[in-house]
Amino acid sequence: MTSRTAARPVTELFSADGRLTTIPRKPARREALLAHLAATLFDADRTYRESEVNEALSTVHDDFPALRRYLVIGGFLSRTKDGADYRRQQRPGSPGGAIPAVA
Questions:
Q1: Residues 53-76: pLDDT tens digits?
Q2: What is the model's pTM?
Q3: Cys staple from 69: which of 54, 63, 83, 102, with CB 3.0 to 4.6 Å?
């Protein structure tokens, strides 16, 4: 992450009311955002129901299904095979059981 885009603070993506203004298209920028969301919205030692993940993500952006999908695909959250339960991953970037087919 040596580009200027990736080096900018993630907080620039949020409006004054704490909501995301956009989900970044550039992978490095989006990854930085996802790391921030995972760290601030989800405890590492807790299992979350899908409804709880949706509720947490909807506090920052209306397209919470896309954010949830990006978090799973990026390895920031793992989910059970049935998609009912989610956990924050200790090492972002390594899926560790994450199932990419999240809708």
A1: 999 999 999 999 999 999 999 999
A2: 0.79
A3: 102
